[in-house]
Write a structure and sequence with these properties.
Blueprint (H helix, E strand, L loop, with lengths): L2 E5 L3 H13 L3 E5 L2 H8 L6 E5 L7 H10 L6 E5 L6 H10 L4 E4 L4 H13 L1
Parallel strand pairs: 1-2, 1-3, 3-4, 4-5
């Protein structure tokens, strides 16, 4: 069973994603910010990591840069609903940093599941 980490400060988004992925056979961990996520991904081998961009403590860009320093951006999916800037701007920046995929909120679950299946098949 492939392990997936979800990082999002929105509890309802974490729950929705966890339930969607669990129902499709994935083992899922969640974290509400990048700092808590780092504790998890330093101890686990996740095949995919879904990170929101705008979060307190340590944001999604810091998560992306940490994975980039490990040459593991191919495991990352960036999600964003925007904030003070449009979601597209945040997601394009994440894409520039080399993430495997980007998804605006609300997330197309079917497309997300297809991407995660592709990422975890290897």
């Amino acid at each position: 069973m492939s392990k997936v980490l979800i990082i999002d400060d929105d509890a309802s988004m974490r729950t929705m994603l966890r339930e969607t992925l669990s129902l499709n056979g994935y083992e899922v961990d969640t974290a509400e910010d990048g700092r808590k996520a780092k504790e998890l991904y330093d101890k686990n081998d996740y095949k995919a990591v879904i990170t929101d961009i705008i979060m307190p403590e340590q944001d999604g860009f810091e998560v992306i840069l940490d994975f980039r320093s490990r040459n593991q951006t191919n495991r990352l999916i960036a999600i964003s609903g925007g904030g003070r800037t449009s979601a597209d701007d945040y997601l394009l920046t994440a894409e520039h940093f080399g993430v495997a995929a980007i998804f605006p909120k609300p997330i197309n679950r079917k497309a997300l599941l297809a991407k995660i299946a592709e990422m975890t098949a290897a």
